[in-house]
Each structure stands twice: as structure tokens, then as C-alpha cells.
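Researcher: Go.
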Amino acid sequence: MKPRNLDPASRYSLKAWAGPVRRTPTDSSSQDEGGDFRWGPLFPMVHEIEPASDLGLPGSATGREVMENGMKLKDGNVALWVVYRRVKP
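Model: Structure:
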């Protein structure tokens, strides 16, 4: 994944978190049977979010470096939150 529209000359602080995405029971599923997890919407499991240390994200980088190098994403159903903040123009 490659972010866009960053200022190439500015330095950014970067952090990322990831969590699994799973199906939730449908509204029509029976609570007595534990719910039907084969159908229904996908939602991030917020209680399982962890720092995403395997994205190859540096702690800080220039906008040019981030846009050129991007981030490595894992396969599978994962919700990813990336926070970046310009720390030096």
C-alpha cells in the first residue's frame, strides 16, 4: 500500500495497528444455537488490535520515502489503521 498526497519534503511520524476481521452473527441467527457465523457482515475485532510491526514501517520518514516505498500488507482479512503526522516541514 502506498499513501498518496504527502508533502515529499516533510518528515512524518508513522504508526500502525492491525486487527482481524471476522463475520458476526446475523440478526436472524438463533442465540440458543450460538449464532450463525457463516453469514453476516464483516467487522474488525477491535479487542484484538495490536501494533502492526510487520509492515516495514519506519518510525519516521520523509513523505517521498513513504510514497515511494509504501507498506507491505499481509494476506487475509485484516483491518489496518495507519496514523501519520507531519513533524517537520
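Model: The mean pLDDT is 79.
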